[in-house]
Write a structure and sequence with these properties.
16 strands, Aminopeptidase, 8-stranded mixed sheet, alpha/beta, 12 helices, elongated
Length: 386
């Protein structure tokens, strides 16, 4: 079936909530206004239970169906990004330097739309647990909510997430079993040489030369260490060295990220990065100190829940608009922590030909709202029948 008629009727109202969130973006765990608005709307819908302060500023709403059945969690993220908006929209951010550049305003609004419909109709058995999470953008709010007992407290058996995807046709869906988003790790390499006069390099150990060689050598970790059938990305994103044109510095610092879709590949990349850095530096008479920080783990979809989610998406959008073996992305996502705690699935919703995520001209496409809300609703309704 297409999107649900009742949802299409109040889609403009959902878009209004979305634009209100867009006007007032908040970062990390400091999503007090957003969480307050979510709580206020959930209360107005008549949900059965509202709990705040899960994972510091997370909000959970509980809607019970007509009879016993599965308890499934549906998650939306609430936080924005420290980016100055340049969309020129009438609802442009009113907070200088902050904007919803990843569509979390749309995610929150769509889950609220699902809450409104589910509380109104209750055409399902079991329980829907609506999870509004802070601090997805680097703050590990998903991990904080899990650590706060989210799954146990609400008896969640399965958990589902959704993210808009620019470039994916509007209102279409993409999903895959296994890794759909990458583990996101950060590393820092400090190379120590022996500083000196730039005109007499033979009397120093030049860490800039070591850094240049190392940047190239590290690219072989993917091309010559990782199985070609696996996926990995290593990017050097920052290089800091020196203070004067005629001085060879003592230290150079490299910073970058590693992205992987498999824990074994992740282990390999970490160990080889340290080995190559330390070994190459030593050949020049320098030292390399590597600090490796593991971030969000792989977002890995469970097979059965992926099949179920894909079938629901087909019911909403039609077979031709659902890719059940979509390409994984090397971006990171802290919904991964929830998927470590419970089986579930994470799906992409097409945002059409928009600017990319984390761009200062990005904007969530409100025309995607009916499909997104209908997906959430049918997920809950169909779960009670399987």
């Amino acid at each position: 079936m297409p999107v649900i008629n009742r949802i299409a009727e109040f889609a403009d109202e959902v878009a209004g909530w979305r634009r209100d969130f867009h006007l007032h973006p908040e970062l990390g765990y400091e999503v007090h206004r957003t969480a307050g608005k979510v709580e206020e709307l959930l209360r107005s819908f008549g949900v059965d239970e509202i709990v705040t302060g899960i994972g510091k500023t997370g909000v959970v709403g509980v809607i019970r169906g007509h009879g016993p059945g599965r308890t499934i969690g549906l998650r939306a993220d609430m936080d924005a990004l420290p980016i100055a908006e340049r969309t020129g929209k009438p609802y442009t951010s009113t907070v200088p330097g902050n904007m919803h550049a990843c569509g979390h305003d749309g995610h929150t609004a769509m889950l609220l739309g699902a809450a409104k419909y589910l509380a109104e109709t209750r055409n399902f058995d079991g329980t829907a647990v609506l999870i509004f999470q802070p601090a997805e953008e680097g703050g590990a709010g998903g991990k904080a909510m899990v650590a706060d007992g989210l799954m146990e407290r609400f008896g969640i058996e399965e958990v589902y997430g959704m993210h808009n995807m620019p470039g994916l046709p509007l209102g279409s869906f993409g999903i895959r079993a296994g890794g759909i988003m990458a583990a996101s790790d950060k590393f820092e390499i400090t190379i120590e040489g022996a500083g000196g006069h730039a005109a007499m390099p033979h009397k120093s150990v030049d860490p800039v030369v070591v850094a240049a060689q190392l940047i190239l050598a590290l690219q072989t970790l993917v091309s010559r260490n990782v199985d070609p059938m696996e996926q990995a990305v290593l990017s050097i994103t920052m290089l800091r060295a020196g203070e004067a044109f005629n001085i060879i510095p003592q230290f150079v610092k490299l910073t970058g990220t590693v992205r992987t879709l498999d824990e074994a590949v992740r282990d390999l990349m970490e160990s080889r990065l340290k080995m190559v850095s330390e070994g190459l530096a030593a050949t020049f008479g320098a030292k390399a100190e590597v600090s490796y920080h593991r971030g969000y783990p792989v977002t890995s979809n469970s097979a059965r829940q992926t099949d179920f989610a894909a079938a629901v998406a087909v019911e909403v959008a039609g077979t031709e608009k659902v890719d059940a073996d979509t390409s994984a992305t090397m971006g990171g996502e802290d919904f991964s922590y929830m998927l470590q705690a419970r089986p579930g699935a994470y799906i992409f919703l097409g945002n059409g030909p928009s600017s990319g995520l984390h761009s200062d001209t990005y904007d969530f496409n409100d025309e995607a709202i009916p499909a997104g809300v209908s997906y959430w609703v049918k997920l809950v309704e169909n779960a009670s029948r399987t």
